[in-house]
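Budget justification note: compute hours in this period were largely spent on complex prediction jobs such as the one shown. Inputs:
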Amino acid sequence: MAEETLLLLKNIRTPGYTGDLAAYQKAGGSKAWEKVLKSMKPAEVIEVLKASGLRGRGGAGFPCGMKWSFMPPPSDKPHYLVCNADESEPGTFKDHLIMLNDPHEFLEGMMIGCYAMNSHHGYIYIRGESQHAIKRVQQAIDELYKAKLLGKNILGGGFDLHLTVHPGAGAYICGEETAMLDSLEGKRGQPRSKPPFPAQSGFDACPTTVNNVETLANVPFILNQGAEAFAALGPANNAGTQCVSISGHVAKPGVYEVEMGHNLKSLIYDYAGGIRGGKKLKAVIPGGASAGILRPDEIDIPYDFDNLMKAGTMRGSGAIMVFDEDTDVVRLAERTIRFFNHESCGQCTPCREGTFWLKNMVRQFMDDAGDEALAKRMERAAFQIGGTTICAFGDAVSGPMMAFVRKFPEEFAKHYAS
Amino acid sequence: MPIFYLNDKPVEFEKGETILKAALRAGTEIPHYCYHPGLKITAQCRMCLVEITDMGNGRGMPKLQTSCSTPAGENMKVSSVSEKAHWGQNLVNEFLLVNHPLDCPICDQAGECDLQNYAHRYGTGHSEMAYEKRVYGWRNVGSFLMLERNRCVQCSRCERFSRDIVGTHDFGAFLRTHELTFDTWGDSEITHKFQGNLADICPVGAITSRDWRFKKRAWKLHKTPTVCTACSTGCNITLEHHENRVFRVKPRENQAVNRWWMCDEGRESFPVLNNRRERILEPQARVKGELQAASWDAIEKAVAHRLQEIGANGAQVLGLTDTHATNEELFVFKQLLSEGFGSDQLYFPYRPGTQQEKPPRYLADTFVYSLITTDKSPNTAGALKAGLIGDEDDKRLKAALKAAPKVVFILGTPFVNDVAVREAVSQADLIVAIGTLHNPWVELADVVLPGHTHGEKDGTFLNKAERLQRIRPALDAPEGTRDQVGILASLLALLGKEPAPASAEAAFNAMGQQDGPFKGLSWEAVGPQGLPLGGAKPAQATA
Amino acid sequence: MAKVGFSDAVLKEVNTLFERYPKKVHALLPVLHIAQRENAGWLPEGWDAYVAELCETTLNHVRGVITFYNMYKTTPVGRHHIMVCTCLPCGLCGGTEVLEHLEHRLGIKSGNVTPDGQFSLEESQCLAACDQAPLMMVNEDLQKRITLEEIDRWIDEARAKKA
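Corresponding output:
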């Protein structure tokens, strides 16, 4: 197997690493937190983050430092940092790897983020199904309180900070940041219409920033090693390493940490061991269920935000799903739309009705009762959901569903009525 | 005010105002379902998508934006008619028809249904969805309402109204995806007194009012803007009628009075306007103990004769009125007593109102609960301002009745349930009752003069907040009846006095020229939004 | 109907939870989880109203939340609540076969409980361990790369334990 570029997973890849606070600190952990508390102003932290070029790893790839800088100056309203640990994008499991095996890394990043944004309370939103992750992260937080790295007047620096784990209850849409905030407020997880953006009015109508687990896990490295060291990794505008979740019909599915911009084909063949059983590759979904499918001849590209966008799909949450020659792409489409129809919150018309209609159309293909007109209609309905809804869920349905029809017409033709 | 451009036309907007609000105020329709000016903005139906070609800084927005949630900006260029905007409007409507039953022919909302109208204006009016639709049964969800969820467009107005305006949250949002449904839980029914508003705000035929079911097609109705008389709040309403029958009452927006809402008591108060069975249709006089119909001419002559015979004056002549009488009627009534008989004995039942309903917990804005008062008449404040005599226990009236008045004029049904008052009044030599429906005073009266209902007459009321508001005639009054101002004026004329103003307008203008609460006001000044006493400007309507 | 309401010890736990949020209603999701934990994995009648009262919100707010999220159940679940991911990629790596096998072995369709109340089955969406497909989650335990033979063995063991 090709070597990983270990930045985030360094501890995890160390044999015998337990992930508790003592082990974390022995491996050099908590230093960034102490450094920030003792010697940096919040604005300075944000400048370092901006200089690092770190982009959000949750899906949209928004520059992290810029996001933090959107938070207003301190006022009588509390500020909040919410860590998006929902990890519900199908094909994604890298945040769970971090949370279960090295929780202190992202927690330290989160604490630094709270300091930078004058937040005295942070919430970690973990999907309710992942009881193990909830318990593991809670355990880590308890350790931090005990070590007085959390709580009141931390390390005598006068900064108070609390972290709370908030369990979700089974809803993909709660991975969308404003839906997550509603869910955190005890509501149905329905995305909010923006403006106002969370930085103005987020959790409890107070300034709030939402960051993904992996994004925050990068923060200690950036503060310890400097923005330049981080920016030096990966191509321009796509700095750092990335934890890529590879699943499906590969020999060695799992999480691999590579530099941003690493070749997609190499990830599949050099890291994940190629297609299992010596079969041929049929298709790759490169960024979670929300990303458009690629044909085998389209995967020889650098794997990062900008290059995947250029290829008409997206990096998303870094989830690569690989499918071999025996895969029926229509069935893939069926699984995909079944998922989106199940998980649509239902508030926007195009998404609510469109996913229902698309599901029915794909099922008609599954019943071998399709035709060319139906494929066209499917493509049109999918196109109509894109960009017409409150949140990006509409695009997440639209992109992949159109891609299935456009990239694999011959697969749909196999399901035409005879 | 700053401006932005909507479909190339400049539109003024207030800072922070959304594109949709400014557009509606300027009279440009942008189709929408979930937006309602009285409810929180959710931007979920997506019908109001517009194309923003320039945010005011030379750059456009790549995606269509919902005009209900996007603030207008200086020099912004917005189109609701561009090809792209039409694409958005059409697709939303197409998706809405995916699961809609298209049962317009049997839907009460037809003719005033946003889905139907927009499908014609902005859509193809059909859906290519060829699969089994989502199907629910219909049922009653309250004494006032019927729910037909197949027609629902999931705009969530009903939930937002229930949660944020009434606070009962009886309409909730349940489930998600295409199963998302707005409903009461299980079979539970709504019991609050603001149900009718749910039928109003539902943009389609999902929530309709039960008493309106299959009664009339909406497009046949004539609409008369007027004021509710069911309590002292005076909600602004529209009487909706056809062929001289009222079919329903709808609230009319007035930010200073009822905003967009009204209560069900008010809504259910209209049947009285259609009541012909108990209506007094002709003037009558008692002959040998029996009331007999006669012409107005004959009756008036007889009354004049009787009054001369009795020769009563001063405190021997008493007037009783209820507070359903308009300011103009009270004015002429007072004039009749003072100029005709030198009497100042005009009594009314003074029943100050208090808020009737208690708002539930967790409701932030309890405004709607202030709408229903315990004073079930529209003009108590007017009677007070007119200087009529009244107290909560009717003590002063009872004292006056001890002096055995000889002539009693009764307008409406004041004190009608008080046996002692009826007994004392019955001793008078002449009782003249002016009214619209049969009532105990008619049983006692020597002369009965048929007046007009508040659906037939013109006039003003002063609501509990001393806002002067005008009612307008919606229906033709039955032949043989006369409006009360005219009746009272002609009674004064019988006595050979200076003629009193014989119309509401003339009476009001006369009041405007005298010292008193309405000094300086003219009939025209009382606009459709009313006029607060004290000279504040009438409230502006919002979009 | 069984008594609705938390014990003093659980109430204490809930009150500690409330302290972590600006408003009580914010803790609605975790409080509902606790209510399910105290009621064998589901929310019997009356608990929605009880939790609404506790979290200072309206009843239909709570019902709206319960019906929105997958994890809240208003009907009983089995002692072993089984979730099988059939999403992509699990669905294409044996997940659907696992589900079909379980339906066959347990004699119930997804969404149901066996008559003896031992097992309930639910077809679920992504469980965030796609590299270990197919996945089966039993109560809180995620069983990875599960084979049909392992499932048979597990069912037999679970049944034997009960007997």
